[in-house]
Prior knowledge:
The chain is an alpha/beta fold. It is built from three helices and nine strands, in the order E-H-E-H-E-E-E-H-E-E-E-E.
Amino acid sequence: MTDASRDWPSSARRLYDSHAISKALDEQAKRLASQVAEGEEVTLMALMNGGLMPAAELAKRLCFPFRFDYLHATRYREARVGQDLHWIRKPSKVSGTVIVVDDIFDEGYTMAAVKEALEEAGADRVLTIVAVRKQHERGLPRDWVDDFALEVPDEYVFGFGMDLDGLWRQLDSIWSVS
């Protein structure tokens, strides 16, 4: 299927191809590994649904042992504008260091609620990791998230875990529609 034949807005433009994403994740994994001590108890936790692809790709690059888990909290529910936070799967008892991985750091409210819930559930430390950080000044400060692989403009983005009206999360590239 050619890009032109895909069923999305004609204004869509590719921001990052699979090679750029892969390279950025390699670097992110190195930064993350430097923050984990030998023998440290670690859980890599995907924030569903968007964090599934970034967490799986990041996991393949990590060279230390960890548990793999998930939680599910959403503000978007396949919409383009966030709403109130809705928990589908809250964290149960956790311990040690939890690395929570999501697709995008936009305003940050979902990630902040997740971090708080993980701390309340017993995590000693929570690291917040995202595939992309959106460039704008709304919501939490841009440096609130512990690490991001790539930056995107203040436009609607999809692919690599992020959806366009509930679709296209499976793309190995990142696209934007203004």
